[in-house]
Design brief:
alpha/beta; four-stranded antiparallel sheet; globular; about 40% helix; binds pyridoxal-5'-phosphate
Length: about 425
């Protein structure tokens, strides 16, 4: 149990002790507000690494200098640009390099992976997901089911929290998997739920899914760069994540894909193919008949979007320097401190407002996000916070999501969040 104090001096002590404190200097904080911006939206769009401009400018200069020859003559030749990202991204998600590729965008990657890994057959046709999955995932899952000529109502099983609860119990996920048994084709869940911030037990879900004979995949949009993932060891079949949330890699930036090694060398796996997934040694023979690359690279469709990847590389270099272990340690301490601050303000104002933290209080069941259900003042409170320079995130009907990002948020930011929350309540 941490013995925190909700004071500026205590927050400053925590900052002084923070081994990652200098990383804040590597990012650009928004300046659009007349007040100091307190940025808590790394779960939506991470801040710009200062180095992103340099990395992108290098490629713009190479384009100016070499034109098409930049594919081979640029400092980081464009034809293989994505390879600069692979090892670094693999470390972040706990994968072997052959299991990871950075390419396309998130929903595209989820579709490409489901085309290969959702193969309904006989009675095994159902997909299990969490209720209130991110809308893009819902649409992707529905359309995958329809793509196979199946009925969505019968085949999309959405698991909800129990009556009166906000979170889905891990045991309920495991029980549902067992219950669906040989009707279950695919488990596809958001590793961290975007709304509640709940972290699912991906290892247990994977084991249970496999025991039932199903494939298990995760949308890691809210987990990559946030949670200490071990996708390879957990045996996850596939996963995808975006680069723009905790991974700070530009709006709409490139996404990552994971395909477990056990599926890496199966050219017979059905897939939607494109030339960049073709064996790279013979790609330019331009012959008919698709011959996929080994591993996740075999799911690439198109040549590398170098400018977006340059932004991603700038951020992945920061992750490599900081290391996921230190990031995870700071995430837990800072989220716990923010939780303490929110509880303190909530307690002091209990006659006026009622906050319910819907994110798990157990830090092994969450990442760097706290979702506050603000009963009563709701949106007015959020707007008042925004007027004070707090950039957080509002989700209907009454949830404020606050994400302290370990790479650039400080304990002092968390303290000020509390002070501004107090002011907003008044
Ligand atoms: C959980 C989750 N899945 C999917 C998406 C869609 O991502 P994209 O627009 O990059 O395809 C998002 C975007 O925020 C998300 O949070």
């Amino acid at each position: 149990m941490n013995q925190f104090e909700n004071t500026l001096s205590f927050a400053q002590l925590l900052d002084a002790d923070d081994p990652l404190r200098s990383f804040r200097e590597k990012f650009l904080f928004p300046t659009f507000h007349q007040k100091t911006v307190r940025y808590f939206t790394g779960n939506s769009l991470g801040l710009q690494p200062k180095a992103a401009r340099t990395y992108i400018e290098e490629e713009l200069d190479a384009w100016a200098k070499y034109g098409v020859e930049g594919h081979f003559m640029a400092k980081r030749p464009w034809f293989a640009y994505h390879e600069n990202l692979t090892d670094k991204a693999a470390k972040i998600v706990g994968a072997m390099p052959v299991e990871v590729v950075v390419t396309h965008s998130l929903t595209t990657n989820l579709h490409l992976l489901m085309v290969s890994f959702y193969r309904p057959e006989g009675a095994r046709t159902k997909i299990l997901c969490e209720a209130k999955a991110f809308p893009s995932d819902q649409y992707a899952l529905e359309s995958q089911i329809k793509f196979h000529g199946l009925n969505v109502k019968e085949n999309l099983v959405e698991l909800s929290p129990r009556e009166g609860e906000q979170l889905i119990r891990d045991e309920d996920v495991l029980d549902k998997i067992e219950e669906l048994g040989d009707e279950l084709a695919l488990v596809m869940i958001g590793g961290v739920n975007y709304y509640t911030g709940q972290l699912f037990d991906m290892e247990a879900i994977t084991n249970a899914g496999h025991k039932a004979g199903a494939i298990v995949g995760f949308d890691l949009a809210h987990a990559a760069g946030n949670i200490n993932l071990k996708l390879h060891d957990w045996g996850v079949d596939f996963a995808a994540w975006c680069g723009y949330k905790y991974l700070n890699s530009s709006p709409g930036g490139v996404s990552g894909m994971f395909v477990h090694e056990r599926h890496a060398y199966k050219p017979e796996l059905p897939r939607f193919a494109g030339w960049w997934g073709y064996d790279k040694d013979t790609r330019f023979l331009m012959e008919p008949g698709f011959n996929p690359m080994k591993g996740a690279e075999g799911w690439q469709l198109s040549n590398a979007p170098v400018l977006g990847m340059a932004a991603h590389l700038a951020s992945l270099d920061i992750f490599e320097e900081a290391g996921m272990d230190r990031i995870g340690a700071k995430r837990d301490l800072m989220t716990a401190f923010l939780e303490f601050v929110i509880d303190d303000i909530s307690e002091k104002n209990k006659d006026r407002v009622s906050f319910e933290l819907i994110t798990p209080r157990d830090q092994t069941k969450r990442g760097a996000q706290l979702s506050i259900m603000a009963k009563g003042q709701g949106k007015a409170l959020f707007d008042a916070l925004a007027n004070e320079g707090v950039v957080a995130d509002w989700r209907e009907p009454n949830v404020i999501r606050v994400a302290p990002a370990p790479l650039y948020n400080s304990f002092e930011d968390c303290f000020w969040f509390g002070q501004l929350l107090q002011k907003a309540i008044q």
